[in-house]
Amino acid sequence: MGKTRDLFKKIRDTKGTFHAKMDSIRDRNGMDLTEAEDIKKRWQEYTEELYKKDLHDPDNHDGVITDLEPDIMECEVKWDLESITTNKASGGDGIPVGLFQILKDDAVKVLHSICHQIWKTQQWPQDWKRSVFIPIPKKGNAKECSNYCTNALISHASKVMLNILQARLQQYVNRELPDVQASFRKGRGTRDQIANISWIMEKARKFQKNIYVCFIDYAKAFDCVDHNKLWKILKEMGIPDHLTCLLRNLYAGQEATVRTGHGTTDWFQIGKGVRQGCILSPCLFKLYTEYIMRNAGLEETQAGIKIARRNINNLRYADDTTLMAESEEELKSLLMKVKVESGKSWLKAQHSENEDHGIWSHHFMGNRWGNSVRLYFFGLQNHC
């Protein structure tokens, strides 16, 4: 495992490194842009629109919290500083992680002082609230900005505080999440969910039962998280006010720039979403989607697969959700419940007239897969 990096380095040296080129990007009207400044402006226009805050959603701020969680210890800072992965690109402040390794104990003392001040005042340095977005091609036409995911490069210094905050949050997150959610949890992973589905299919084959499975893929899931909704969810789930205030102030006044092959864009404000590349984002997003599933009433409903006196109707890995039922009617019922609650939280399934993604449903008939049935998120249109 420790030599994985060396293995991939040798592979890159052998076949060369692929660099995605942005020679041209389409504007919102579908026209190709080839000039450097036009491409930069288009990326800024797209990302500003993607992360634009809803003006009708006022900020709910309770001020500084005086009932604080236990103080940050210097040993926490030292441990987190040592655990930061090397060979990572720097964030907006341009400070490489190697600098902290050179400074050693001096860096620990300085960062402990900064983290302690943030912990006490709940106010973050502006440099720690800045992100550099790197567009990475994900699918489809590489000329469309919407076919990229925007990974965030953040300050290495801020990662120490983020790791500490994550560790304090983890006990509450573990308490709230059900065992059907396997994302970023100790001892669990995608292979567990694949094994679970395979085992369910095996039992269906053995007992000649029909099973209907629906796969949901949310569009720009991390980018659509409503901040005020998130803070309300954290409060309802019993997250301490001090930790919620730290998170809220981290996201208040966030700024970002997009790094393209032609330079970086101007800085702009971030009004929604959780940063892809931040250690806190999977944790926050899981609580966000857990709230959706709870309100959809998946635990209370009788629809699902009956196994060992237990009803299982969903398996999850972060934003990837699988719904399961023993009839098409039950599956549609589950899907409609999730659709309604997802819409209330500004999440929607991917939907395109040209590509097969979004929501798929498959029918397993005891010994084989039946015809694929596509259920659109909007209107539940079936294609057999």
Automatic annotation (TrEMBL):
Its EC number is 2.7.7.49. CDD domains: RT_nLTR_like. Pfam families: RVT_1. This is RNA-directed DNA polymerase. Residues 117-382 form the Reverse transcriptase domain. It comes from the Eukaryota. InterPro entries: DNA/RNA_pol_sf, RT_dom.
